[in-house]
Give the backbone structure.
Amino acid sequence: MQFILLLLFLFALMAAAAFTGKAQSSEFVIIHLRIPRIIMSVFAGAALTLCGAIFQSIFRNPICDPYILGISSGASIGAALAFILGLDFYLFGVTSFALVTAFLTLLLMLGITRFSTVKSSYVMLLAGISLNFLMASILTLLMVLNHQEMQKIIFWTMGGFATVSYYDLLFFIPVFLIVASFAFLLSKDLNIMQLGDTQAQSLGVNTQKITYITLLLSSVLIAAIVSICGVIGFIGLIIPHLVRIIWGNNTKHLFAFSMLLGSIFMLIADTLARTVTNAELPVGSITALIGAPYFIYMLVRK
């Protein structure tokens, strides 16, 4: 109950800050730039690691990450179109375009899976991988044909929180809370599904229904993240691995500790992106610089 009241209080503060006018310069930087950025980095880190843990549990594949179904590439195309059309100066200009194309990509992936003669979660996985390559090639063509906006598009696709506002938080946090609640409600069924589809069905778990619900909710959350922050890689892949090593495979523990470590890791990465050099670095480059060597170390060690 106290946690819910705390969230409601935080939500009320963000709503008040979003609709107030500009304060003094130093106060404006802290209230309207630093605070929403910190809050968003915490929630984005938790959301990405939660989605990574869900995907790895559903597909029973430790190398699945939140972007494997192509949702991020679809969102990147929408963002690129917004930059090309000059809509990045409008409120929710980039976010709305990225969100629409992310959902269209999700619908396309679900349509391919629906009409496939083979009904398996692996068909969804392969369809997502194929769409990822297709959307990435379209994005490359858009950048090549629009040199003026190429730098903006590249920086956005590498992820960051520089443009996050309270309006973004008011949109994103409810989506995150809904998806996280469903993930914990379905954690028992996801635990049983680790035994395999046949044995899970014999124990009364509707594996196809659980798979579609969790992947759909996770994809919605990923679309929301990418539409606001761009693509921030490796965190959704590495953190669940680390949590499994320390706390085991129980999905309830996996989700909880993944979100906790993901929030801390993302906050550290964003702080480094702001302070390492005079120019702001993309947060995605920081997470990749930390995550890729650790992943290679895990491959060599195990």
